[in-house]
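User: Hey, my collaborator sent me this sequence without any context and asked if I could get a structure. I don't really work with proteins. Can you help?
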Amino acid sequence: MLRKVDSSLYDQYADAMPTVEFKKVSYDGILGDQVNAYLQDHPTVPFHEVIDIIRPMADQEYLD
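Assistant: No problem. I've predicted the 3D structure and written it out in structure-token form, which is a compact way to encode the shape of the chain:
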């Protein structure tokens, strides 16, 4: 059974209410950004090695 909430309660406690922010997280975006940043500083490292190097950092950023 749904009960209506008195709107005056909302006005009274609006500042105490938690806020929720939804963000879409793209692992491909995180990985790509880190690959590009690494390649700027280390342009001679082969791409497949860059992936191996930055993968743990991208994984951690994604989980955070």
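In plain terms: The radius of gyration is 22 Å. You can pass these tokens on to your collaborator as they are.
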